[in-house]
Design a protein that fits this description.
Blueprint (H helix, E strand, L loop, with lengths): L6 H14 L7 E2 L12 E5 L12 E2 L3 E2 L2 H8 L5 E3 L9 H17 L7 E6 L1 H13 L5 E5 L4 H5 L7 E8 L8 H6 L3 E9 L13 H13 L9
Helix pairs in contact: 3-4
């Protein structure tokens, strides 16, 4: 004879299962998570230079408001954990890349494969993501560059990018294609690039419009492996 459990008891068991199953994917972190699930995907989003400091919604006189909180929410997804630091004013990009590289090494030491880790960076954040990739030198890491192959990347010719590389740039922006970075990088596993034309110049990435958010999330969710430790 089948017996039905009371709703209250069932809800408690569901809560216990979720709390103990190790299913942490879908969370948004502003600091490095203390609990790492090796089966989860982890995504690091690095914002542009204008957001460095105390204000998460600064305004550029030409390109308008950079809505960092809205971007974090839009990039969040139940298929991966999003880690989005708010950098201090005048952060040294090289030093911050060392920090990101250390964080990724921590994930890998906990069993997360490089394939399940993605760096996403816009403008200065894109340059920091490239520097981080250069430090890690993994051909399995995923990196998404948003209008990040500008003057900083051109001047630092010794810096290469590694792994699975994606790029999005705005045709009305002064920062264009990442092809020049790819041409000098010998350990690129794959490269995909798309141009968008919103007319918003660099400000196209100041708000989470679907034109760039949709392909970014599609690339993240298409990447990675499960239940296989590839380092």
């Amino acid at each position: 004879m089948l017996k039905f459990m009371k709703v209250g008891h069932l809800s408690a068991l569901i809560y216990i299962f979720i709390a103990t199953s190790g299913a942490y994917a879908g969370q948004l972190f502003e600091t490095m998570p203390t609990t790492i699930n090796p089966d989860d995907k982890y995504v690091f989003y690095s914002h542009g230079f204008i957001v460095e400091g105390d204000n998460q919604k600064p305004v550029n006189p030409r390109w308008g408001e950079y809505d960092f909180p809205a971007i974090k929410q839009s990039l969040s997804d139940d298929q991966y954990n999003l880690i989005a630091y708010h950098r201090a004013k005048n952060t040294n990009p090289h030093q911050f890349a060392v920090r990101l590289a250390s964080d990724i090494k921590t994930l890998v030491s906990k069993g997360v494969p490089f394939n399940n880790i993605t760096l996403v960076g816009f403008s200065r954040g894109g340059a920091i993501s490239i520097l981080t990739s250069n430090l890690l030198a993994s051909d399995k890491l995923n990196i998404i560059i948003l209008a990040g192959c500008g003057a900083f990347v051109s001047k630092n010719q010794q810096v290469s990018v590694f792994g699975n590389v994606h790029s999005i740039y705005e045709t009305s922006d002064g920062v264009g294609s990442c092809q020049h970075l790819i041409d000098r990088s010998k350990e690129v596993t794959s490269f995909q690039e798309m141009a968008i034309s919103t007319g918003k110049e660099h400000g196209a990435f100041y708000t989470p419009i679907s034109t760039w958010v949709t392909p970014v999330k599609a690339w993240i969710n298409a990447s990675g492996i499960k239940n296989e430790q590839v380092k």
